[in-house]
Write a structure and sequence with these properties.
By secondary structure, the protein is of the alpha/beta class. The protein has eight helices and ten strands. It has a ten-stranded mixed β-sheet, with helices on both faces.
Length: 251
């Protein structure tokens, strides 16, 4: 059977990671398992994994290599990891999380340490940039969400060059544009899908809209490229989101 893997440490961040893995397992129709990589003699999160009824695999060695190897097994459909080990204000994701998300060609949910996720997802925020690559990458996840009867909020952020000229004063034309955008990028029926459009900075709008609409999960397509000047939307979302962010590779 398919598995969602939770990479956990023996600290307070393990619980939201396991809760997120449980929520993803409901989405992917999978079971939950956990992995803990011993690097420096720290304690084991065995009791917490047991509380979630998640079998725990404890491995020794560098965390990134061990987690990527465990998540690379064919039965693993997604991984949940902590963004960083420090509670507090906005911070970039930690080194371990960044290395894993760029190396593992599978969906990875990055969980903020201050997140309070629910074990059942009811509302997804799905930003779409209007490219075919992002739409194709997110298609399977959107189909699963629709099948589970979840609410899907699609966000498209315009730049000044792409905002429709009629947007402020022609409601019928705006509604037609919205229908066309959804038809072009969402293959499922649109009965539980809504479109929100913004003009501004995508990273800021994603985090703000997720908070305004009480989204349980942000789902982002990305290229797994964190070289300078790339993945600015992903980096900003990871740094500021207070809900888990599910990253879906476009390749």
């Amino acid at each position: 059977m398919s598995t969602v893997l939770a990479a956990i440490e023996a600290d307070a961040c393990a619980q939201p990671i396991l809760t997120t893995a449980t929520a993803l397992a409901n989405l992917f129709h999978a079971t939950v398992a956990a992995v803990h990589a011993h690097e420096n003699g720290a304690g084991s999160p065995r009791e917490l994994a047991r509380a979630f009824r998640a079998p725990l695999c404890e491995v020794c060695g560098p965390a990134v290599e061990q987690i990527v190897a465990a998540a690379g097994q064919p039965e693993v459909v997604a991984l949940a990891i902590g963004a960083r080990g420090v509670h507090g204000g906005p911070q970039p994701a930690g080194r371990t999380a960044l290395e894993i998300i760029t190396r593992l060609p599978k969906p990875v949910a990055v969980v903020p340490p201050h997140a309070q996720p629910r074990q059942k997802i009811t509302r997804l925020l799905v930003p779409l940039d209007g490219t075919r690559e992002s739409s194709q990458a997110l298609e399977d996840t959107i189909k699963l969400a629709h099948r589970r009867q979840l609410e899907i909020i699609v966000l498209h952020v315009h730049s000044p060059a792409t905002v429709p000229a009629f947007a402020d004063h022609e409601p019928h034309a705006t509604a037609a544009w919205d229908r066309e955008f959804l038809s072009r990028h969402i293959a499922t029926p649109h009965d539980r899908v809504s479109l929100q459009r913004r003009l501004g900075a995508p990273g800021e709008d994603i985090v703000a809209l997720a908070r305004e609409n009480a989204a349980d999960l942000i789902v982002l397509a990305w290229s797994q490229d964190l070289s300078p000047g790339r993945a600015r939307v992903v980096s900003r979302t990871l740094a500021h989101s207070n809900v888990p962010v599910l990253l879906i590779p476009t390749t």
